[in-house]
Amino acid sequence: MKIVVFGPERRAGALVGERVIDLNRGLAKYLSERGEANAAEQAASRLPSRLLSLIERGPAGLADAQAVIDHFIKLSPADDRGAPTVVHNLNDVKLHAPWPERRIACVGGNYAAHLAGMWANRLGKTEVSVEQITEEAKKAGQWGFWKVPAEVAGPNDTIPFPKRVTYFDYEGEIAIVIGNRGKNIPAERIREYVWGVTLFHDWSIRDGGGVDRVVSYNLQKNFDGAVSMGPCIVVGELDQQDIDADTRVNGVVRQSYNTSEMIWSFGEVLEYLSRDFTFVPGDVIAGGTSAGTAADKSRRGPDGKRPLDLFLKVGDVVEVSSSKIGALGNKIVASD
Predict the structure, then answer these.
(1) How far from chain centre, in Å, is Cα 237?
(2) How many domains does the chain have?
(3) How do strand 158-161 and strand 284-286 relate by DSSP bridges?
(4) Same domain, yes or no: 276 and 320
(5) Are 102 and 284 in contact (CB under 8 A)?
(6) Residues in Cβ contact with 35 at an 8 Å cutoff, skipping those fewer than 6 apart
(7) Can you tell me the distance from the alpha carbon of 155 to that of 92, in angstroms, rounded to the nearest whole number?
(8) Which one of 96, 120, 137 terminates a domain?
(9) Which of 270, 264, 260 is nearest to 179 (CA)?
(10) pLDDT tens across 219-249, in order?
(11) What is the CATH number of the domain that holds 179?
(12) N or C: fewer beta carbons within 10 Å in the chain?
């Protein structure tokens, strides 16, 4: 099941081929056709129009969603004449980020191939195998950061180029959306907590971040347009540790990897972060990025500076995609 957020009211829908089914209105119409009283009220309770409320409904909400999909799957938008509309052409609606407006945790340094390039730049380590990098990273322990956006960009939204930046980078990622409340969660119970999987873009500032500190504001990862997600959340179909991901800049492949290559699995990350910390439905964990970013591919010159050719510029179009999820494209524009 592919869940999207669409339209001016940012309603939860199901993406089925080239159609979007409004789940809440679909259930209301389905119940009304069966002659049930208070169909709209029942639908509002059982299959809410807001994404977060749908996630919080758990398995019962997904069962109702599947019933709506099964009922309307053969109905074309042209034949859906009764108001309000339930079945829409995908091209006729605006897809928004499927962000439940909860917290976003991001894993850092979670792919050895990416670390190889970063270590070559920062530490001068060039003759290190992927196995050695993985071992060293495991010994050093997990690290990451939180993204704290007020808004998250969705498919085809623009990303403003931060004014204070010279080196602006792309990081295509896979993220999980949490479906159950929990704390101190063992890694082996990860499947109980994953509601779905989506594409995630961790836009990053690669200019110097100032003095290194144990705790910081982390401004390189937090600015307007620092996150995009979409086009959908795939629910109940995927193994989060076996998802392919590609990143293209102006149509050229820059990244290509699989989540099976993660140093720390999503389960291990959830176990680490949930120590004395409660995760709630709608929280997001992004699993990190692999090799191919501008930062890990651009070697510093004798003057210590990196060439700009691989870093992003105004007008660039960046697309993160997966054969199992879809594509998330964004264009870089000048900041206001």
Answers:
(1) 16
(2) 2
(3) unpaired
(4) yes
(5) yes
(6) none
(7) 14
(8) 96
(9) 270
(10) 999 999 999 999 999 999 999 999 999 999 9
(11) 3.90.850.10
(12) C
Beta carbons within 10 angstroms of residue 92's beta carbon: 12
Same domain, 189 and 313: yes
**Angle at the Cα of 156 (from 152 to 159), degrees rounded to 5?**
55
Alpha helix segments (H runs only) across the chain:
23-33, 39-46, 51-72, 112-122, 130-140, 266-273, 294-297
Average pLDDT over residues 195-208: 95
Same domain, 80 and 202: no
Question: Does 46 lie in the same domain as 132?
Answer: no
What CATH number has the domain bearing residue 62?
2.30.30
Do residues 276 and 270 lie in contact, with contact meaning Cβ atoms separated by under 8 Å? no
Q: What is the pLDDT of residue 192?
A: 97
Model-level pTM? 0.95
Query: Tokens standing for 286?
Result: 């992004």
Residue 293: the pLDDT is 96
What range does the domain containing 88 cover? Answer: 2-96
Query: What's residue 158's pLDDT?
Result: 98
Instruction: Fill in the amino acid letter for 51.
Output: L
Do 85 and 129 belong together in one domain?
no
Distance, in Å, from the CA atom of 247 to the CA atom of 329, rounded to the nearest integer, reads 10
118 shares a domain with 91? no
Strand 95-96 to strand 87-89: parallel, antiparallel, or no bridges (unpaired)?
Answer: unpaired
Of 96, 122, 151, the residue at which a domain comes to its end is: 96
Question: Of 63-72, 119-128, 296-305, which one has max mean pLDDT?
Answer: 63-72
Strand 158-161 to 326-334 pairing: parallel
- Give the integer Cα–Cα distance in Å for 54 and 187: 25
Q: At what angle do helices 112-122 and 130-140 cross, to 10 degrees?
A: 80
Q: Are residues 87 and 152 in the same domain?
A: no
Element holding 257 (H helix, E strand): strand 252-258
Could you tell me if 77 and 158 lie in one domain? no
Distance, in Å, from the CA atom of 12 to the CA atom of 97, rounded to the nearest integer, reads 11
